[in-house]
Amino acid sequence: QQGELNSFLWTIRRDPPAYLFGTIHVPYTRVWDFIPNNSKAAFQASSSVYFELDLTDPYTISGLASCQMLPHGENLQDVLPRELYRRLKRHLDYIKLMLPHWMTPDQRGKGLYADYLFNAIAGNWERKRPVWVMLMVNSLTETDIRSRGVPVLDLYLAQEAERMKKRTGAVERVEEQCHPLNGLNFSQV
Fold it and tell me: EC (predicted)?
């Protein structure tokens, strides 16, 4: 039963109370039914909501996009071993071929085209740092493609908070997200 689920909601006892709730970056529809009522009630009752990043801010989104790029005009082909680069390119060609078959009728009904979706996810992949390409490739599965267009839990909650006129903010800056990942060396990636 939903009421019996572990909520992963921590309460900071003060007046008014503060809550800490860990979210994950998956389409909210995959997890929404499993979020216990006490977590949903805490969200409803809160007047301010702070997220890891402000995913509704265009500067955050552009900052995330630019931090993923290789420096000095480098290309992935310059930094990956030749055979790995070829395997990656073949895999992305396969994904591009399969994408139309993976899309849902609902996605097509909203005017979403496979080429557009591929470019939205993987566009400019040859200019990205290996760690970001790895994360991108991990999200290029049939299941993930079928959920495209559905906001991740963080974004859904941020959109709901804005709709409900709650004060919103972020606890991290883009640099705090990017620098640790960009600091990984090639063997770690």
Answer: 3.4.-.-
Q: How far is CA 111 from CA 39, 68, 102, 116, 147, in A?
A: 35, 28, 15, 10, 15
Q: Is residue 38 part of a domain?
A: yes
How high is the pLDDT of residue 157? 94
Q: Mark residue 155 as left, alpha or beta (left: phi above 0; alpha: psi -120 to 50; beta: remaining).
A: alpha
* Total-model pTM: 0.78
The rounded distance, in Å, linking the Cα atoms of 189 and 186 is 5
| CA 133 – CA 125 distance, rounded (Å) | 7
Using DSSP, state whether 10 is helix, strand or coil: strand
User: Could you list the residue range(s) of the whole structural domain that residue 114 is in?
Assistant: 9-183
- Which residues, in sequence order, are bridge partners of residue 27? 152
| Helix H or strand E segment including 77 | helix 76-79
pLDDT band at 128 (very low <50, low <70, confident <90, very high): very high
CA distance 23 to 35: 10
Q: What residues contact residue 186 under an 8 Å CB cut-off, 6+ apart?
A: 79, 130
CB 146 within 8 A of CB 19: no
Helices and strands, counts by H and E, the chain: 11, 4
Tell me how many domains the chain contains: 1
